[in-house]
Amino acid sequence: MGQLEEPPEGAPQYSCFEAAREGSGVSESVAAQLCQGARSDAPAKCFQRVQERAFLEDPQALQLCQYAQPSDDPASCFLKARRSSFVDEPQLLLLCRPLIADQMNMYPYGP
Predict the structure, then answer these.
(1) pLDDT in the model for residue 1
(2) Among 28, 61, 83, 102, which is most buried by a count of CB atoms within 10 Å?
(3) Residue 42 has pLDDT above 50, yes or no
(4) What sign does the CA torsion over 23, 26, 28, 33 have?
C-alpha cells in the first residue's frame, strides 16, 4: 500500500500526459484534461505545435487538440487556415478541431 503502480502497458492516456508535461511545461491539470480519452500522444504533439507556432493560450490549444488522433492533424489545419484566410480564431478552432470533440461536448457520458 502507498506504492505507486506503473501505468499498464499500452496506456495511451498516460503516454500523452507524459508527452504533454515534457515538452511544453504545461501544468499537470491541463495535461490531464488534454489527454483524457486519448488514444495516442497526438493531443500532446498538437498542443505543443500550436503553442510554439500559433502562440495559442492553453484554453484555445486545449479546445483544438483534445481528442486529436494520429489521423487528424488539427494543428496543421489551424496553421494553414490562419495563414490563408481572414476567418477569426474562434471559427478556425471550430473548423479544425476533431469531430469527436463536438460529440464529447454534447454527450460526455456517451450516447
Answers:
(1) 44
(2) 61
(3) yes
(4) negative
